Amino acid sequence: MRILIADDHALFRDGLKSLLQVEGHEVIGEARNGKEALELTRRLLPDMVLMDVSMPEMDGISATRTLTTELPAVKVIILTASEDDAKLFDAIKAGAQGFLLKNLEADDFFSLLDRASHGEPALTPNLARKLLQEFAKPPQAPAGGGEPDALTAREREVLELMIEGITSNRKLAKRLGVSENTVKFHVRNILDKLRLHDRAQVVGYALRKKIVE
Question: How far apart are CA 188 and CA 182, in angstroms?
Fold first, then answer.
């Protein structure tokens, strides 16, 4: 296989390149970041790109999303030292053929690469199980949909200040004359009652629904 390695650590690239060459693969290029990975892949057209997740200038997920759109024939395998489930789900949604942890044994690594070269997903049983569990979850209800009328007068006051652009706990506490812990309590109640996840969603939702004047 003609392979391109994208990783911002030169020592890791060198080690991986040596392993791949011992197994009979041809390493046709090396990239230090996602942007270089895109440029080299467009020019060299490898069979496969081994893409690190965390890189400067452009991360591996963003680069994968662009590559799989522009060059669907090129297989992209994400390599990472992190077991972050969110990264796994993002990588697969971006079109990656596989998601491999850097602490894999060499035999397992090359076995999964071989599977990927034949169009099969390159996932360890544990990661495949996590992926299936995620996709088996029932779809979540859209953000919002709570009852604005359930907000107390104090919570509405907090919401009004947030809409004015005062969103930090410290500044809210100062304006309201209360402790930061009290502010956190009110904000958490607002999020729960409106079924939202963060303050930006709260402000946008409140403006759209005209919850406060």
Answer: 10
